[in-house]
């Protein structure tokens, strides 16, 4: 049995609580948040507190709080030599107070409270300073069905950066697709199967191999047509920059 | 029974042949390509030809050839008053020779010969000049299980343009994610579930609502960290432009 205390009550903390709570060999001994209201809903299933001094004994303390609060809270913990981990993609392991054993449990997925999460689709990137702690965190992750990977702070930062490209920036391209289609009262819905297929394709093929379209073919006529259709200068700029990027990648253009 | 002649032997033509051939109420009467070699493999299942003058009678002639060849081939057809359609996202319906009844059957999906296609995930955008032809094309599309939508030439052009954003440009962001992770020997594979989740999210939620991350929050510290991690100036430019785009969309910045 692995015993856990969760700190924070946001997107990540809430999904972790839910999955831990239904996992046989994990017990959530306590749930802390500075503001008890967010925990009210769960007070019948777990001991809740807003007092760091009242934290109970456990194998792992998970700081699922905002990046900026991690260092500070780690310093306020009223014990030492315990395993304390954060869940951030971009906070260094050494930013936490060294009075405790430190680790990172970074779930490489996008969480919102409302959307259900299947933890078998959440790769968990683990970093620790101590080998024994690594094995314990790995066991925790495997218990909830997540694939795990040992990842150091530099690799984790780069994964977090790459996640911004494939998640936030990609989503913004969907948004632009939405704006462009609505402007001609065409339906964005028609693009949804293509969006899904594009994501599925790179599950088994490199993005390099999966590329198609006018930029890769350097089809000047279509590119010119597209630019003349785009009324928004900002969209034009994005069209030009990503077209150049594809040309560079596929040897149609030199830097 | 709907009878069809296919012209062209590329990605689209090949997938159309395969699905028509296994659909009960559709018969492919003949398959034309200027170069017979590409059709050789199919010569036992369908009549093949490389001679436009030898085209046989059918309800629909589908020009699944390169955009630039559509007008030319439509002019060379040795008959008139037949229904002739092309499959392109960006060629005008009026670019085809008016001696025949004209239409468009634009499959809004990405096709490559090797990858299997489920036509229930291929929305087919239909345009015709004549109402009766519209109903026939709709019946053809429904027979292979595809959703259909009546779309005029302006809407189709805009859908084709939006498809470049959500397919080619998105795929290039995946490519950049690949380059960035490899540069730190982190694994691109770890990003694959996130890529899929990002695409799934907008199936039921607008991209506007689905957005998260440092640009939307205007989290200056993380943005600065990310820019300092990016060594490639071209990647930096893309990071800045898409970050600005998200800020504009979410009211964090004005044009
Ligand atoms: N969301 C994701 O998709 C995702 C994915 C991977 C990793 N992460 C990482 O996981 C961590 C949590 O993210 P999240 O999305 O769950 O955040 P969130 O939903 O914004 O929740 C943040 C939590 O931190 C608490 N908090 C903030 N400042 C605090 C302070 N000074 N003292 C004490 N508590 C404080 C908040 O308390 P109140 O309730 O009182 O405001 C809240 O419970 C972050 O490190 C994030 O980088 C997030
Ligand atoms: N691929 C997609 O994802 C996709 C999606 C939606 C719509 N479309 C549209 O579908 C059409 C076909 O695309 P595709 O990807 O199937 O193309 P493709 O694989 O490049 O095949 C093009 C076909 O056109 C023939 N062709 C080219 N120039 C010709 C000419 N001057 N005279 C006669 N035949 C000629 C080629 O003949 P040879 O075999 O002799 O070279 C080949 O059979 C295009 O209008 C395209 O815009 C494509």
Automatic annotation (TrEMBL), chains A, B:
Gene3D superfamilies, alphabetized: NAD(P)-binding Rossmann-like Domain, ProC-like, C-terminal domain
All residue ranges annotated as the DUF2520 domain in the record = 122-245
Q: Which InterPro entries match?
A: 6-PGluconate_DH-like_C_sf, DUF2520, NAD(P)-bd_dom_sf, P5C_Rdtase_cat_N, TM1727-like_C_sf
| Domain Pyrroline-5-carboxylate reductase catalytic N-terminal per the UniProt entry, residue ranges | 4-87
Which branch of life, at top level?
A: Bacteria
User: One Pfam family from the UniProt entry?
Assistant: DUF2520
Q: Under what name is this protein listed?
A: DUF2520 domain-containing protein
């Amino acid at each position: 049995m692995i015993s856990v205390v969760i700190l924070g009550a946001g997107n990540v903390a809430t999904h972790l609580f839910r999955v831990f709570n239904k996992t046989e060999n994990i017990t959530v001994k306590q749930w802390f948040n500075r503001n008890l209201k967010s925990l009210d809903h769960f007070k019948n299933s777990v001991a809740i507190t807003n007092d760091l001094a009242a934290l109970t004994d456990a194998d792992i303390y998970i700081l699922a709080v905002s990046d900026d609060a991690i260092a500070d809270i780690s310093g306020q913990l009223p014990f030492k030599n315990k395993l304390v981990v954060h869940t951030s993609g971009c906070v260094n392991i050494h930013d936490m107070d060294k009075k405790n054993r430190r680790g990172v449990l970074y779930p490489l997925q996008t969480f919102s409270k409302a959307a259900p999460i299947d933890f078998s689709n959440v790769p968990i990137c683990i970093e620790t300073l101590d080998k024994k702690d690594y094995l314990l965190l790995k066991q925790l992750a495997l218990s909830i069905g997540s694939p795990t990977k040992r990842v150091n702070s530099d690799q984790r930062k780069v994964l977090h950066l790459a996640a911004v490209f494939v998640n936030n920036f990609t989503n913004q391209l969907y948004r632009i697709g939405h704006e462009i289609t609505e402007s001609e009262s065409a339906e964005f819905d028609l693009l949804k199967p293509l969006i899904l297929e594009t994501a599925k394709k790179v599950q088994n093929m490199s993005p390099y191999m999966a590329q198609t379209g006018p930029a890769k073919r350097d089809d000047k006529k279509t590119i010119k047509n597209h630019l003349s259709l785009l009324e928004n200068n900002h969209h034009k700029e994005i069209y030009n920059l990503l077209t150049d990027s594809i040309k560079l990648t596929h040897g149609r253009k030199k830097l």
